[in-house]
Amino acid sequence: MALDHAILAFLGECTYSGYDLTKKLSSVGFFWTATHQQVYRELAKLEAQGWVKSEVLAQENRPNKKLYSVTDLGRKELAEWIAQPSEPTSVREDLLVKIFAGYLVPKPVIIEELKRRRKIHLEKLSAYQDLERQDFGNIENLALEKRFRYQALRRGIRYEADWVEWCNEAIQVLTNMMSS
Fold first, then answer.
1. What angle do CA 158, 162, 168 make, to 5 degrees?
2. HSE value, Cβ hemisphere, 13 Å, CA-based, for 62
3. Can you give the chain as a three-state secondary structure string?
4. What is the pLDDT of residue 47?
5. Signal peptide position in this chain (predicted)?
6. How are beta strands 16-17 and 52-57 bridged, if at all?
7. pLDDT in tens, 53-81
8. Distances in Å between the alpha carbon of 21 and those of 3, 96, 112, 156?
9. CB 95, CB 113: distance < 8 Å
């Protein structure tokens, strides 16, 4: 997946400034993240392609704000991309390399890293669960587009929960190895 399609997907929801779009992408980091520079660079390309359009919003005592929205051509491109098969993304995870070669360092070093990572995943899990409670009360009453967005959020929740579970398992295995 490329950043352009992630941006088109979010702009299909409502208009955003580049800054707000970057914040929105950060809030759903379970499937895409990008820096401000990447987002602004991509927005310029998308606008040149005619997939998004911008409107300048004048603000008092602040710099003008540029709001972006998806065009019909951008919606068409996004729909065509969605209809194409996609392949799973390759896993590139430093922690797994560390675990793979973890026998080279004392076990407590790896255990501490696992605890640190578990804490990070617990925090993300909690944030996603808060979002689930706030934005997705009764699933049956949600509009169609929110039901699809909910499924993406559920994947993020399961992803973080799996990391927490795996960290717990690995910590237990290493702790047992130390006591035997």
1. 150
2. 7
3. CCHHHHHHHHHCCCCEEHHHHHHHHHHCCCCCCCCHHHHHHHHHHHHHHCCEEEEEECCCCCCCEEEEEECHHHHHHHHHHHHCCCCCCCCCCHHHHHHHCHHHCCHHHHHHHHHHHHHHHHHHHHHHHHHHHHHCCCHHHCCHHHHHHHHHHHHHHHHHHHHHHHHHHHHHHHHHHHHC
4. 96
5. none
6. unpaired
7. 999 988 888 888 899 999 999 999 999 99
8. 12, 31, 35, 19
9. yes
Q: What is the mean pLDDT of the chain?
A: 90
Q: In angstroms, how far is CA 5 from the centroid of its own chain? A: 13
Tokens of 149: 């967005």
**Rounded mean pLDDT of 122-139?**
90
Quick one: tokens of 94? 């430093």
Helix-helix angle 3-11:36-49, to 10 degrees: 80
* Spatial contact of 5 and 46, defined as CB atoms under 8 Å apart: no
pLDDT of residue 85: 93
Distance CA 8, CA 30 (A): 17
122 vs 176: CA distance, rounded Å: 23
